[in-house]
Amino acid sequence: MRHLFILNPAAGKGKTLKLVPAIKSYFAALNEDYKIEITKYPGHATEIAAQYSSQQPCRIYSVGGDGTLNEVLNGMAGSNSSLGVIPSGSGNDFIKSIDPDSPLNNIIARSVEGSAKLIDIARVNGRYFINIASLGFDAQVAHTTQHFKKLPLITGKMAYILGIFTTILQRKTNMLEIGIDGGFIEADALLIAIGNGRYYGGGMMPVPEAEITDGMFDICLVDNISRMKILRLFPLYMKGQHGKISDVHFYKGKRVEIKSASPIAMNSDGEISIVNEAIFEILPKALSFIFPK
């Protein structure tokens, strides 16, 4: 079996490159074919994953953060290859949906020796994502958080908290038309999150009941609320306890269609874009994912 490690040298403030000797050391004692590819520009991970997965089935490991994982997914989705993750970014959120208590030590050996199982993935506007997408306030928070993550001594969770408070000062709500499996909701919304996985933003839990094998999205809609209520919301949002607030609503569905009256920020696995419309589709058990041993 071929093992391909796609490494993003910019993830985790450069710490991913320190994993190269560990990968080589592990395979030195094995009689197995492996390859390490280091990305050189945004989107390169997608190109590498597409190239190798089109040749023959292999195990492809994303070495970086959730953004790197998204790029790799978009290169190999629909192939017969399996996807694994060596979490070494700032947040490393998707792996928490696989096993929130899984230690990161010895992760290379445990991933290579792990078993592949089928999980759900999703598409929004034709692009794959594996974890969570959100529109509105939260996507703007993610955009601002990216700036803070580049600063020294700032952890993923700290960057997210700083992003929240900065975005509160520029608070904006959006009129949304939301379709969920044929049902219709019109909302003046602060944000909406559509989740396959449970965690994002350095361990925050917008959809605490989400499962990666149930063939459904978990959806969290937060109404237009005041700045004071936002300050009350997010400590609970971080812990997945925000359902106790009356302005928070949860739904489940397989297809979600959102139209915004004005351009709105969207965050999909950490990739930020500006849209007026977003169509989400769940793809049940469409990806072979490597669960660490």
- The residue fraction in helices comes out at 25-40%
Helical/strand content category: alpha+beta
CATH architecture label name of the largest domain: Sandwich
Tally of individual domains? 2
Global shape: globular
Largest sheet: 13 strands, mixed
SS elements, strand count? 13
What's the helix-strand series? EHEHEHEHHEEEHHEEEHEEE
Strand content: 35-45%
Specify the number of helices.
8
**Rg, Cα atoms, Å:** 19 Å
CATH class of the largest domain: Mainly Beta
What is the straight-line distance between the termini? 17 Å
What is the average per-residue confidence, as pLDDT, rounded to a whole number? 91
CATH topology of the largest domain: Tumour Suppressor Smad4
Poorly predicted regions are none
- In terms of quaternary structure, the protein is single chain
Notable traits:
293 residues; alpha+beta; Tumour Suppressor Smad4; 2 domains; 13-stranded mixed β-sheet; 13 strands; 28% helix
Describe the structure.
The chain is α+β, with helices and mostly antiparallel strands and 293 residues long. It has two domains: 119 residues, Probable inorganic polyphosphate/atp-NAD kinase, domain 1 (Rossmann fold, 3-Layer(aba) Sandwich), CATH 3.40.50.10330; 152 residues, Sandwich (Tumour Suppressor Smad4), CATH 2.60.200.40. The radius of gyration is 19 Å and the shape is globular. The model has no long low-confidence stretch (mean pLDDT 91). Helices cover 28% and strands 37% of the residues. Strands 1, 2, 3, 4, 5, 6, 7, 8, 9, 10, 11, 12 and 13 form a 13-stranded mixed beta sheet that branches.
